[in-house]
């Protein structure tokens, strides 16, 4: 059984509900502040740990209270945090999120320590073995993501690359991933950029997901509470199941089931391990 190594972001999400979004220059009064743990990297690491994988995380937090709390939180999920560095020079990554009454979000991401993750943090990727899965998203600098993919592939590990939020990644790196994971919006941007990777898994919201000739339906959800993080639950669970040696279709079904559960809780991660 392989390990899952997530190289990615750790953010604290600050969420305020508003009647409508403010116009430039305007001040609005919103609801009570909700603070939640997020960042696609850590969200996916938590999902993989919940799917029973042995998970380690590579990333950075700031030398502040939120960073310390975040590391403790990941450790409580049995995630190996030895390579989550405390960066002395920048704060923990943060996302300021306004949720309007119509459900539309506006989000400002302040990468903070995530932006300091460098290729020097990736040394352990050279010691992976076949069967290990390296799970990547695009909330770190593209250079770091590309280097991580190349090292992981050179070591014989499987690369799973979630192209979110969408950015143009070089063709050779896309061709290393098995699969590249995109939602419908990212799939459109990828096609518009002329990219056509060999292995692409598309998530289709309430319509499920497809990967080559395999399609799986979404699980039925009685009450949709918050779809934030559905994609992250999907990616983390898929990586865990592939690391466990499952075939593509079984891994996708498990991923869809986990994503459906995640739409039933607020925010991107469950509140308790
Ligand atoms: P993202 O959250 O990245 O935009 P999607 O919206 O495609 O990604 O959702 C990812 C996965 O989450 C889907 O493939 C599906 O399995 C599951 N999912 C999303 N929305 C729902 C829903 N309303 N009901 C059930 N499953 C859902």
The number of domains: 1
Shape: globular
Percent strand = 25-35%
Low confidence ranges: none
**Counted beta strands:** 13
Assign the CATH class: Alpha Beta
**Arrangement of strands in the largest sheet:** 5-4-1-8-9-10-11-12-13
CATH topology value? UDP-N-acetylmuramoyl-L-alanine:D-glutamate ligase
User: What is the assigned CATH homologous superfamily?
Assistant: Ribokinase
The class by helix and strand makeup works out as alpha/beta
Order of helices and strands: EEEHEHEEEEHEHEHEEEHH
What small ligands are held by the chains?
adenosine-5'-diphosphate
Family: Belongs to the carbohydrate kinase PfkB family. Ribokinase subfamily.
Keywords: ATP-binding, Carbohydrate metabolism, Cytoplasm, Kinase, Magnesium, Metal-binding, Nucleotide-binding, Potassium, Transferase
GO molecular function, one term: ribokinase activity
Enzyme class: transferase
Notes on the structure:
This is Ribokinase. It catalyses: D-ribose + ATP = D-ribose 5-phosphate + ADP + H(+). The chain has 273 residues and is of the alpha/beta class. The protein has one domain: Ribokinase (UDP-N-acetylmuramoyl-L-alanine:D-glutamate ligase, 3-Layer(aba) Sandwich), CATH 3.40.1190. 29% of the residues lie in helices and 25% in strands. The chain contains 7 helices and 13 strands. It has a 9-stranded mixed beta sheet with strand order 5-4-1-8-9-10-11-12-13, sandwiched between helices. It has a 4-stranded mixed beta sheet with strand order 3-2-6-7. Strand 10, helix 5 and strand 11 form a beta-alpha-beta unit. Helix 6 packs antiparallel against helix 7. The chain is globular, with a radius of gyration of 18 Å. The model has no long low-confidence stretch (mean pLDDT 96). Adenosine-5'-diphosphate binds next to helix 6 and helix 7.
């Amino acid at each position: 059984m392989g390990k899952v190594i997530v190289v990615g972001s750790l953010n604290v999400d600050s969420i305020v509900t508003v009647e409508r979004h403010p116009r430039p220059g305007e001040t609005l009064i919103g609801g009570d502040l909700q603070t939640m743990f997020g960042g696609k990297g850590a969200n996916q690491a938590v999902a993989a740990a919940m799917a029973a994988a042995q998970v380690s995380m590579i990333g950075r937090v700031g030398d502040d209270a939120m960073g310390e709390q975040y590391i403790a939180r990941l450790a409580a999920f049995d995630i190996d945090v030895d390579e989550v560095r405390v960066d002395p020079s920048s704060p923990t990554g943060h996302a300021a999120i306004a949720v309007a009454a119509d459900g539309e979000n506006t989000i400002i991401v302040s990468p903070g320590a995530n932006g300091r993750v460098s290729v020097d943090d990736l040394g352990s990727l050279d010691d992976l073995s076949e069967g290990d899965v390296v799970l990547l998203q695009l909330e770190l600098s593209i250079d770091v993501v590309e280097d991580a993919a190349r090292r992981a592939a050179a070591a014989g590990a499987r690369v799973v690359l979630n192209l979110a939020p969408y950015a143009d990644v070089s063709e050779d790196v896309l061709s290393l991933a098995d699969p590249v994971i995109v939602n419908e919006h990212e799939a459109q941007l990828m096609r518009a950029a002329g990219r056509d990777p060999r292995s692409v898994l598309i998530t289709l919201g309430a319509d499920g997901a497809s990967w080559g000739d395999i399609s799986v339906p979404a699980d039925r959800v009685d009450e949709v509470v918050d779809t934030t993080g559905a994609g992250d639950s999907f990616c983390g669970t898929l990586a865990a199941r592939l690391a466990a040696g499952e075939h593509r279709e079984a891994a996708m079904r498990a991923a869809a089931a986990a994503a459906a559960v995640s739409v039933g809780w607020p925010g991107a991660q469950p509140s308790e391990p």
